[in-house]
Design a protein that fits this description.
- This protein is an all-alpha fold.
- Helices cover 65% and strands 0% of the residues.
- The protein is built from ten helices and no strands.
- The protein starts with 10 loop residues before the first helix and ends with a helix.
Length: 213
């Protein structure tokens, strides 16, 4: 009788074993692929961004009174065409804004403005509304009891002022004639006086010549 081979020597046993090994290897590769994909996904995930802290503005550290003084100074400069010295005096005046000396100094140190332009605007106002002479306007611009502009600022205003001072003298002369019933010669003296209107002799002569007879 022919002796049977042990089962582990049969061909189909080895075939099954090979199939099991192949399946196991493929399974490990699939698991590795999934793991690698997860690792890649984690790697490309954007880091959590921290919300940036709001930077503190420099002006936030400035006392409220200082900022108020600066805003007042800007208003005086822009709407009233005042000089730097006149604004400083107004800020600290007991009859004005009553700011502390420190807050007023902060305001003036941080106020950026074209003071020559303000002097010119003031000069134009004096010429158009008050018919003043060139010398009288200059004196008013630099006066400590007037506009308090510097001499350079006042001179810039006079040099760039477009005005007919003959007509200004005539307007002044007519006012003296109509409201004060002054004689032509008295008017002439008032127009040229260094304590009066400060017109030139030529401007006064033009005014007297064109007065109503």
């Amino acid at each position: 009788m022919k002796q049977k081979k042990p089962f582990y020597k049969k061909w189909w046993v080895w075939a099954i074993a090979i199939i099991i090994v192949v399946i196991a290897v493929n399974g490990n590769d699939d698991n590795k692929t999934v793991t690698d994909k997860k690792s890649t996904d984690l790697a490309v995930t954007e880091p959590i961004k921290e919300t940036p802290k709001e930077e503190t503005k420099a002006e936030d550290n400035v006392p409220k009174e200082y900022r108020s003084a600066l805003k007042k100074a800007e208003t005086y400069a822009e709407t009233m065409n005042m000089s730097k010295n006149a604004i400083l005096a107004q800020l600290t005046s007991e009859y004005g804004e009553k700011f502390s000396a420190e807050s007023a100094k902060y305001a003036m140190d941080n106020l950026k403005f074209d003071w020559k332009a303000n002097a010119l605007k003031k000069a134009e106002t004096y010429s158009k509304t008050m018919n003043m002479s060139k010398q009288a306007i200059y004196d008013q611009l630099i006066s400590e009891n007037g506009e308090k502009f510097t001499k350079d600022e006042a001179q810039y205003a006079i040099d760039n002022l477009k005005a007919d001072f003959n007509e200004n003298a005539l307007a002044k002369a007519k006012n003296y004639q109509e409201t004060m019933n002054m004689s032509p010669e008295a008017i002439r003296d008032q127009l040229t006086s260094s304590y009066g209107e400060k017109f030139t002799k030529e401007e006064a002569a033009y005014a007297i010549k064109n007065l109503d007879k």
